[in-house]
Amino acid sequence: MKPDTTATTAATERTRDALDLAPRFTEHDAVRLNRMFRGSTTHEMLEAVIRDRLAGDLAVVSSFGAESAVLLHLVATVDPAVPVLFLDTGKHFAETLAYRDELVRLLGLNLVVLTPDAEELAKRDETGLRWSYDPDGCCEIRKVRPLEKVLVNYDASFTGRKAFQAATRANLPRFEVDTSDAQGRLKINPLIDWDAGQIEGYFIQHDLPRHPLIAQGYPSIGCSPCTSQVAPGEDPRSGRWKGWDKTECGIHKPGEEPFL
Ligand code: SF4
Q: Which residues are catalytic?
């Protein structure tokens, strides 16, 4: 006798109906949020988004680089419990780790350290030198995958991108859908309309500490093997992956890297 599968099938259909498999945010939501905060200050927008949970569960992704302190301070002023995700690639300058710890202490940040998968690292970068012959593969193991794994737990992430940094950012809105996967997370760019003078002014006004490597000629700071000093007047990004046809780490599309 054949088993009666009708009841099981019906239950499966019901479960499927009950599961909401649609992306969390759509383009329409992003447009609506941009309209809602037109004319609002950055602080007003952050207060509403964080305190009223307009974008669900939030995280900041930070490399604790040259300008990171501004957004971290702004977010921590509203709610220091917002998780700050830091990709510990194992290749950072000691100065970056010390600066990270200083800002965590000063601002009371909720730091979450993400590390590469040990097994994958052993298999694909046993010598730790993959950066020297395959930087894309190295970034993939040490940055892209660890972040991907954790971001599925959030509805939105903050970036530190600013329109003045690149032509590709000139028209970026405050809210956009993160297209790196099909989850429908939001990317929020609170500093998109800030200029270099405002960033500098914020550092001074709030007496925020500077990354110690800036004074040594590093205006854009990433992993130590892939970051070089830059001469005055040179493009700040020219010190990243010098000698390689590579400008981004893969976490964001070209022109979208958060200068955090
Ligand atoms: S920036 Fe360099 S060292 Fe860091 S993950 Fe990418 S390739 Fe590896």
A: 249
